[in-house]
Amino acid sequence: MIFGADYYPEQWTQKDWEEDIRIMKEMGISSVRLAEFGWALMEPKEGKYDFSFFNKILNLIHKNGMTAILGTPTATFPPWLVKKFPDIIQERDGVKRTIGTRRQACFSSPDYRKASVKIVTAMAKHFGNHPAVIGWQIDNEIGHEGSDIDHSPVSLKAFRVWLKNKYKTIQNLNETWGNVFWGVLYNSFDEIPIPGVHVASNFHPSMIQDFYRFHSDTIIDFVKLQAQILRKFSVGRPLTTNLYPSPFLPIIDMAELASYLDYISWDNYPTWGEQEEPFPHPFIAAMQQYNRGLKNLPFTVMEQISGFQGHDLLGYLPAPGQTKLWMKHSIVHGSNAIYFFRYRTARFGQEQLCYGILDHDKEKTERYFELQKGIKEISEYADDFVEELFPAQVAVVHDIENARNWKHQPISSGLKYSPVPWAQLGYDVEMATWFSGMNVLNVNTHFRPASKIDFKDYKIIILPMYTMVTDSIFQKLERFVKEGGTLILGYRTGAKDLNGWMYDSQVPGPFSEMAGVKVRKFEAVGNQKVKFKFRFFPGTCSKICEILEPTTAEVWARYTDKKKFYKGQPIITANSYHKGRVIYIGASLEPLSFMLLYRRILREAKIPFTFYGPTVEKLNRTGRNQNYEIFINHSGKKNLAGLKILNPYEVRITPKKK
Amino acid sequence: MIFGADYYPEQWTQKDWEEDIRIMKEMGISSVRLAEFGWALMEPKEGKYDFSFFNKILNLIHKNGMTAILGTPTATFPPWLVKKFPDIIQERDGVKRTIGTRRQACFSSPDYRKASVKIVTAMAKHFGNHPAVIGWQIDNEIGHEGSDIDHSPVSLKAFRVWLKNKYKTIQNLNETWGNVFWGVLYNSFDEIPIPGVHVASNFHPSMIQDFYRFHSDTIIDFVKLQAQILRKFSVGRPLTTNLYPSPFLPIIDMAELASYLDYISWDNYPTWGEQEEPFPHPFIAAMQQYNRGLKNLPFTVMEQISGFQGHDLLGYLPAPGQTKLWMKHSIVHGSNAIYFFRYRTARFGQEQLCYGILDHDKEKTERYFELQKGIKEISEYADDFVEELFPAQVAVVHDIENARNWKHQPISSGLKYSPVPWAQLGYDVEMATWFSGMNVLNVNTHFRPASKIDFKDYKIIILPMYTMVTDSIFQKLERFVKEGGTLILGYRTGAKDLNGWMYDSQVPGPFSEMAGVKVRKFEAVGNQKVKFKFRFFPGTCSKICEILEPTTAEVWARYTDKKKFYKGQPIITANSYHKGRVIYIGASLEPLSFMLLYRRILREAKIPFTFYGPTVEKLNRTGRNQNYEIFINHSGKKNLAGLKILNPYEVRITPKKK
Amino acid sequence: MIFGADYYPEQWTQKDWEEDIRIMKEMGISSVRLAEFGWALMEPKEGKYDFSFFNKILNLIHKNGMTAILGTPTATFPPWLVKKFPDIIQERDGVKRTIGTRRQACFSSPDYRKASVKIVTAMAKHFGNHPAVIGWQIDNEIGHEGSDIDHSPVSLKAFRVWLKNKYKTIQNLNETWGNVFWGVLYNSFDEIPIPGVHVASNFHPSMIQDFYRFHSDTIIDFVKLQAQILRKFSVGRPLTTNLYPSPFLPIIDMAELASYLDYISWDNYPTWGEQEEPFPHPFIAAMQQYNRGLKNLPFTVMEQISGFQGHDLLGYLPAPGQTKLWMKHSIVHGSNAIYFFRYRTARFGQEQLCYGILDHDKEKTERYFELQKGIKEISEYADDFVEELFPAQVAVVHDIENARNWKHQPISSGLKYSPVPWAQLGYDVEMATWFSGMNVLNVNTHFRPASKIDFKDYKIIILPMYTMVTDSIFQKLERFVKEGGTLILGYRTGAKDLNGWMYDSQVPGPFSEMAGVKVRKFEAVGNQKVKFKFRFFPGTCSKICEILEPTTAEVWARYTDKKKFYKGQPIITANSYHKGRVIYIGASLEPLSFMLLYRRILREAKIPFTFYGPTVEKLNRTGRNQNYEIFINHSGKKNLAGLKILNPYEVRITPKKK
After folding, report:
1. A67: domain CATH number?
2. Three-class SS state of B135
3. How confident is the model over B364-389, as a mean pLDDT?
4. Are C218 and C97 members of one domain?
5. Where does substrate bind (chains A, B, C) (predicted)?
6. C205-233 and C153-167 are packed helices; what angle lies between their axes, rounded to 10 degrees?
7. What is the CATH number of the domain that holds A466?
8. CB contact at 8 A, B425 and B419
C-alpha cells in the first residue's frame, strides 16, 4: 500500500515545505502528487522553460525518502497561450470558455496539441528520470466539467474530418444515419453542423451518437499522444490519468482509454459541494467497482476525500470516523494506493473552501489524527490482499455505446438526471441501482465494461439498459448463456443497432429467442410508482414499464396496479436456454424488489448471500496468505452484522485461513 | 369520410411499398399524405429537380385506387440552400437555428422566399395534375416550435419595413405606441431594435404587440404566396395547411390565414412526449372546436395520433380502445377526413420513437386492428353527418389580439404557463377552462374567432379575457345584446385599445354600460384559491380577483374569503340591457363553479343541458337523413349516461328520426 | 415635511396639467419629481437642445406655488446616441442590452460619459436657477436591474486599467490574488478576462471581488461627475440619487456614494410585481434604517408606493389603509420628504400596470382620499420630529466588502437567494433577519455601514457575516469592546482578509481572543432546520452550523439535534473582554430564537424592550418639543399593544413631555 497526498508547494512558501513533509511523514504518507496545474510555472513564457521550482521540491521529497507522481499540466494552460492562439478555447451550448478558470482547451485544436506536446516533452525530459518520480498522471480529470463536449468551430472542423474518415462518402453517411428523415441530405461534409444548442427539436440521434464517439476518440488520442512522449523519456514509470468523480462517464470510452495506461486512478468524493448527504454506500461501491473494473486490476485513488469540500458552496460535514471509513472502503474494494486530496487547505483561489488534511493553518486537525490512525489500522492486512484480484462470480455490465445513447435519448423523464447543466447521469444512476441490489446482499460483484469483459469468468451477468447492440458482444453473451450462465436483462434490451437504427423486429430484438419473450408495448412512467407483485411480495417500479409477452419464458412477476390497463400483465420473466438462463426485467424496480429478485436468482445459481440491513456492507477478499471477511458499518450508530456488534463507521477485517 | 395515413415511402425500400399499400387498404385507408419533408429529395442540388421518386409512389398509389395529399416541403430546406444563403436562418432568444433539425427558415428572407417559390412551382407543375393528387398541404405545422417568432437581423430589417408601411412616419409610430415613455423616441425606423432577449425590464408592450402582428402577417403572406402558385398549376385541388397541436396559437392569426385556404386541417395529439396523462377531454374538445370554428366548416385531422409518440422522451401509453375513441372524437366534433400519424414507425431519425399504426416491423399491431375496427364502426353513421354543420346555440369566442396581448402581459402568474420555453399558453388554457364548463354540461358549443363570427347565430356568447377591444367587434356585441343575446364577459374586459393604450375610463371600459358594472380594484392572486359563494354553493377562484362595483347590475356572487379584505364584495354580476343580458365574471372560477353558473344561465336561456359526470361527454349531430345523440365514455371503466351503460372508451351513436 | 409626487407631464396633454396640479394640491402635495426619463425630449437630436417642454411645466408648477426635483435623464438614453456609439451598451451574462428598454448604458464608456456630461451641463445651465427647482436626482435607481455589473468589452478594457492603477505590476496582481492557483499567471494586464458567464468552475474569488469593486468605483465616479456639474450650475440645490428598492445593494458602496450627495433618497415598495404578500414589516423597517443609516440623517422616499404595481405581472393588492400606513412608516423611521410613485397611472408603456394615486382616468380614487387623510394625520406631529436624529442604542452593521464576498461565495445554499437572475440577495436577507429580532422587541435600532459608523455611539453592535476583515474596522471594534460595548458576532467571522485570502489561523481569526472561542468545523446545512437549545428554550437554526470550541468564553447554547454528530457541542458563547462583552453565534437562528437571545443581551445591557406580538411595531422618536411613542399595527385586524387597542393598519402617535 502507498499512502500519499496531493500537494501544492506552489501555494506555500519554501519555508513551509520541510515542516509540511515532516508532518506528512509522521502521519504515514510517503508519496505526493505534484504539478498538474503547473504549466505557467514551468513555461512562464512561450518556449522559456523553468523547472527549478519543481526540481527543488522533488529533491527535498527524495531527500526525505518520499516519492512523487507528476501530473502533466494540460488541464489549464497559461494565459500567454490563448493570447497567441485565441481559437484553442472550447465552447459549450453557446458559451465560450475562457482563461481564468480551467479545462478550457479544445482537444481538436492542432495549436493546443502542439503546445501540449512541447510542455510534456520538456517536462518528461527534465523529470523523467528523477529518482523521486514514480509515475505520471496525464492531464487532470480529463473531460470533467462538461469539457468532453465542445461546440467550437475548431471542434466542428475536426468532427467533419472524423466523419469523412469514418464514412468516406457523404452518400454513405446520409444512408447510415438515415438523413432522408426530415430531408437533411448533405451534399458534402462541410455542410454538417455542430449538434449543439437548438431552439426546439434536437438533432438526429445517429449524429449525436457519432458526435460523442468523435469526442471520445479525440480525447483518447490526446492521452495517447502524451503517453507516447512519457514512455519515451521516462522509461519504466507507470502512467495513469485520474478519472473524475461522476461515476460512469457517458462520453469518453474510459475502458478504451485505460488500454493506453498502466493503471486506473480516480477521484473519490462521497460528498462534495452542496450535497446534503453523502452518496449511499452502494453507490460509492459501484463507483469503486467501476474504476476497478475498467482494467480488472488494483487501482489508485488519486484524490481521496480528506475533509470538507466545495467551491463556493459547501454541504454535508463528514462525521468523525467517516473519512477514515471512506479511505478503507477504497482499499477493500481494490485500491492499492491512496492520495489524499489535499494536504493543506489553500488560502486563496477557487479551492479555498476545499478543506484538506490540515486547515489553513498548520495545527494538526482531528482529520489528521483520524487518518493517521486509519492508515495504521488497515496496513496490518492491506499488504496481504491489495495486489490480489477482487473475487466475484457476479458482474454488472455497462456499455459505453448505451451510456451515450441513453444520455441523448432517455425515453423516460425518470431516466433524465442533470445535477449540473453539463451532465445527464440517468444511465449512471440507473446502473448503480441495478448494482446496489447485489451490494446490499453482500455478494462480491464486479462492475465491468461490455467491451472488455470475459463473460465466462462469471456465473451471473447483469446487463441493464442494453438497448444498442454490438454484434460481437451479443455473440459472446449468447455463448455465455448456452454454456450455462445466468443473464439478467432489462427493459429496452436489443432495440437498436450501432448505427442508431431500431431493429425491424421487436424488443428484445436479437435476444428474443434466448429471453423467450417479446415486447410490443411499454409506457414511460417517469417517476411514478407502479405496483407489481413478485411472488408474495408487492413492490413498485418506475421509469419504463414494459408489457412482456412470453413466448417460451415463464412469468415471475406481474403488474398489479389498478390505475394501469396492463394490470395482470407480466413484468419479469425467466427463460431456460440451452444450459443457461435468461431473466428479463421489464421495468426499473425499487431497491427492495431488486433484492428479493436477486435472492431468488442467487439461490438458483448457488451463490451465497447475506443481509445485515441497509447500512452494513460485507465483502470478501483473498490475500496471498489469508482470506478476509470485511464488515463495514456505514452508519453513525452501532450496528449488528449477524452476531458481531460494529461500532459507528467501523471497518472490521476478519482474517480466515485459506 | 376519408381515412388516410401519413406515409414516408422515402424511409423504406421500394420493395416495402406494395406490401405497405396492401396492408393500408385492408385496414380501410384510401389516402396518404406525402412529401412534406422531401425538398432535398426533389431538388438535391440547386435547380436540379428530380421528381422520379414521388412519381413512382404516386403512380403506385393511383394504380391501387388510392389518393394523396402532397405537402410542400418548405418546413425544412436542404443543406445546400443555407450554405449558399447563410442568413436565411431564424434566431430565437439569442440562439441561431441551424441545419440538422427543422423549421429553421426565416420567413422574412427574400432568398428563402425565392427558393420556396421555385420548389413549389416546380412541384406544382410536375404533380399538379397527377390523378392521385387530391390536394395540397402548404408547409408543415407552420409557426410550430417557436418559429412564429424570429429575432434574426433579416427579421429585424423586415420588421422595420412593416412598421414603416403601417405608420408612415416615425412621429406617428412614437405617438401611437407612446414612446415618450422611458424616453425612447426614435428619429428613424432604422433605430428600432428587435424586441428579443433582454436582461431585466421588457420592451414596450405596444411594440411587442406589433412584433407579433408583423410575424403573423409575414407567415400568412408566405402561405398566400404558395397558395397562388398551387392554384395556378394544380387547378381544383383544395389547399390546406396543418395547424400544429398547441390549441389557440397566440401569434399567427389562423382565422385570417384560413381565409386563403380551402379547409382547415390540424394535428391532433391528445398525449405527446413526456405527458403523464392525456389532456382532459374538454380540452381536446376545445381544440377540435377551435379548429372547426376557424372556418365553421368540416375539417381534416392531418395527423391523428395512432400510437405512442415523442422525440427523446415518452410518457403516457394510450390504453386499448383509447386511440380509436380519439379518432371518433375528431369525427363527431366535425372532422370529415382523418390521416393517421404515421403509417409505420421510422427506424431512424428524431422520430424513431413516434410509434405509428405499425411498429418498426410489419407485423400487424393491436393498434392496427383497433383502428380498423373503429373505421368500420364509425362509417355506418359518419357519412350521414360529417358534411353537415356542427349545431350549437352557444359559442366561446377567442380573439387573436388578446391572445397576443395576454402572452406578453399575463398580469397574473396564474396566467403564465410555459411547458416549453418558446410558448406561453396561459390564454389558451384559460380559454379552454371557460369552454369546459359548457362541455361537461353536454351542450354543443362552438369555439370561434371574434373576427369571423356572426354573433347573431347564437343565444349565448362567452367572451373571456377580452381586454383589448376592436371597435367593430364591440359594436357587433352591443347589437347582439340589444337584440336579446346573453353575453358572458370575464375579468379585465375592455381595458385597452388596439394600440395597447389603457382606456382613460375604468374596466370594463366601453362595456361598462351594458354590463352595469365598474371595476377599480383587482388583485392578481396567481394560483391561490380564493373563496367565494354563488347562491348556496361555495367555490374558489384564482388568477385575477376583481372587486366589482355594480352600477345597474344585480349581484350574483360575492367573495367570502376571510384572508381577503374584499370579503363580501361582488365577484359576479348580471345586467339586463335592452332585450339582452350581460353576465360579468370578475375572476377565474374553478370548473365546478363554472358549471353551476352556466347551469343558471342555460336555464334562463332555455337551452337544455345534462350532466353525466366528469368523464362522459354527450354531443348532438344533425345528419342529412337522421339526427344523432353521441355518448362518449372517456374513462377506462364502465360509466353511466342516464340509463345507458357505456363500456370503457366507448363512443355510442344513437340515431334519431329527424 | 414635504409631500410630493412623481409626475410625468410628458405622458399627458397640456390640457391635463392644470387639472392635475389642482388635484395634487387638494390632496396636500406641494412638490413633484420630473424629467428623469426625458433625455430624448430635451435633446431630440445630438446637440439640439429643447427645454421648452419642461420649462412650461416648471413655470406652471411655480405659478401654483409648488416645487420640483429634477432627475438627470441618464438612466435611459435616446436612440440616436447608441446609433452613433454602438459600444455604449452594457452586456450581462452573454446578453447585450439594447435600446427599447432602460439602463443600457456602459458606465465605463468614454462616449457615454461625454454625452452624459453634455446633457447634464445643458440641463443644469438651463434649469439650475429656475425658482421651482429645489434639488436634483442624479440618474435613476443607478445600478438597478443588474446594471451594476457589465460584461461588455468596454467594461473589460476599463477593468484592466482599474487593475493596473491598483496593482501597478502584473506580478503584484498575481501574488495578491494568488494566481498560482490553477496556474493562471498573467504576463500582462491585457490577458485578464472578464469574469462573466462560464461553463463550470467559477472565476477566482479575489478577482470577482475586485470586479465588483471596479464597478462600484466606476458608478460612484459617474455620479460624482454629474454632481460636480450640478453644483457648479445649480448652486444651493441639494443633490441625491434614488437608491433602488432591493435593500442592501451588494455591489455599489452606497455609503461611499452618499458622501458625494447631500441626502439619501430611496424607492420604497413593500410589495411589487408578482409578490403574493408584502415584505414582513421588520424587513421594511430594515430597508428604512439601511437608507437612513447611510448618512445617519433624515432621508427622502423618492418613490413611495401609492397603488398597485408591476410591469407585466402583478400580485398582492394593498388593503385599505395599508398604503397610508406604509407612508407613515417611512416618516416615523426617518423620512422628511415623501414623493408618491406615481401621480397618475400611465396609459401606455411598460408601466401601464403601475397604478399610482389616480388610475388611468381622473376620478379620485380611494387611494387618493386615503393618502390625503394620511397626510393630514401625520402632519400634526411630523414637523416636530422629522429633522431630529432617530435615537438608538443598538446598531446592526453591514459591510460592503462582505456583501460582495457572500454574493459570489455564499458557502451555504441557504445563503443563496436569487428572486431575479441578476441578483443574489442572500446576504441582504440574512442581515435583515439579524435586524428583525431587535425590531420585534420594539427596540429602536440603527442599521449602519461598517465604514462610516462610530461604534461608541452605541451600547450594542450586531455584526453578522463579518467574514472579510478590514483592519481599521477591526481595531475600532476592539476598542469598542474594551471600553465596555457589547459586540454580537456571527458565523464565519474573521475568516479572510481584504485580498480574499483565508487567514492562516482559525475562525474567528483576529476576533478569537475577544470572542474567547475557536471554530475548526462547520457544516453548511442549507435550509435544514437543526435543533439546539438556548437555556430552556428549544429552537432551530439553519444555513451554517459552526461547532464552537470555547477558550475563555462561557457556553450559552448547545446543539441538540440527534441527526447531527455535533449534538451537545456549543452553538452560542459569551465572553467578557476588558470592560465589554462578545457574544458569538455560530449559526443562523430562527426568528423566535433571535428574540429570546436578544432579550437576554438587552437585559444585561439595561436596554428596555417590549413585545406586542409579531404584527405590532413600536418606535420612539425625539422631537424638538415633545417625545413620541409610536405604535404601528401592521395587520388588517385589531391588535393589542399593552392596554392600547389599535385599529387595522393604524399608526398611533402618542406625544410625551420631554
Report:
1. 3.20.20.80
2. strand
3. 96
4. yes
5. 102, 140
6. 100
7. 3.40.50.880
8. yes
Q: From C145, C59, C132, select the one nearest C102 (Cα to Cα).
A: C145
Query: How far is the C-alpha of A262 from the C-alpha of A259, rounded, in Å?
Result: 8
Query: Residue A469 carries which DSSP code?
Result: P
Q: How far is A503 from chain B (nearest CA, A)?
A: 7
In 3D, which of A340, A365, A273 has the Cα closest to residue A310? A273
- The per-residue pLDDT for B248 is 65
Among C348, C383, C418, the domain-final residue is C383
Question: What is the per-residue pLDDT across B159-190, written as a single tens digit (0 to 9) for each?
Answer: 999 999 999 999 999 999 999 999 999 999 99
Q: Does the global pTM surpass 0.95?
A: yes
Distance CA A424, CA C344 (A): 52
pLDDT at A657 over 70: yes
Residue C328 shares a structural domain with residue C417: no
What average pLDDT is seen over chain B?
A: 97
What pLDDT does C248 receive?
65
Cβ-proximal residues to B285 (8 Å cutoff; 6+ apart), any chain:
B329, B333, B435, B439, B617
Range of the domain at A38: 2-298+315-383
Q: Does any domain span residue C388? A: no
- DSSP E strands in B279-409: the ranges are 299-305, 335-341, 394-398
Report the C-alpha gap between B602 and B265 in whole angstroms: 31
Per-residue pLDDT tens over the stretch A490-503: 999 999 999 999 99
Q: Kindly state the percentage of chain B with pLDDT values over 70.
A: 99
B389 within domain boundaries: no
A526, A646: one domain: no
Q: How far apart are CA B133 and CA C328, in angstroms?
A: 77
Lowest average pLDDT, out of A259-273, B202-216, B242-256, B349-363, goes to B242-256
Looking at the structure, tell me whether residues B121 and B245 fall in a common domain: yes
Per-residue confidence (pLDDT) for residue B210, from 0 to 100: 98
Residues C563 and C497 in one domain: yes
Amino acid at B37: F
Residues 6 or more apart whose CB falls under 8 angstroms from that of A568 comprise A558, A559, A560
Min Cα distance C496 → chain B (Å) is 33
Chain A (389-448) residues lying within 8 Å, Cβ to Cβ, of chain C: 420, 422
Q: Is the domain of A444 the same as that of A345?
A: no
Q: What is the ipTM of this complex?
A: 0.97
Q: Which of B364, B383, B402 is the last residue of a domain?
A: B383
- Structural domain contains residue C494: yes
Question: Is A141 a known active-site residue?
Answer: yes
Secondary structure (DSSP) of A355-370? B-SB-SSSSPPHHHHH
Interface of A with B in 493-532 (CB under 8 A): 496, 499-506, 520-526, 528
Query: Is the domain of A532 the same as that of A628?
Result: no
The closest CB to that of B360, out of A205, A411, A503, belongs to A503
The total domain count for chain C is: 3
Contact assignment for C205 to A313 by CB distance below 8 Å: no
Shortest CA distance to A66 belongs to which of A93, A35, A29?
Answer: A29
**8 Å CB contact of B352 and A205:** yes
Q: A555: distance to nearest CA of chain C, Å?
A: 44
Task: Find the residue in B nearest to A200 (Cα).
Answer: B145
Strand (E) positions, B227-341? 239-240, 242-243, 265-268, 299-305, 335-341
pLDDT per residue over B497-528, tens digit each?
999 999 999 999 999 999 999 999 999 999 99
pLDDT recorded at residue B204: 98
Q: How crowded is the C-beta side of C354, counted as CA atoms within 13 Å? A: 20
Instruction: Note whether residue C303 is domain-resident.
Output: no
Q: Which of C362, C364, C342 is nearest to C353 (CA)?
A: C342
A186: nearest Cα among A198, A202, A203, A199:
A203
The closest alpha carbon to C455, from C499, C399, C402, C507, belongs to C399
The reported pLDDT for the residue numbered C197 is 95
B124 in the same domain as B145 = yes
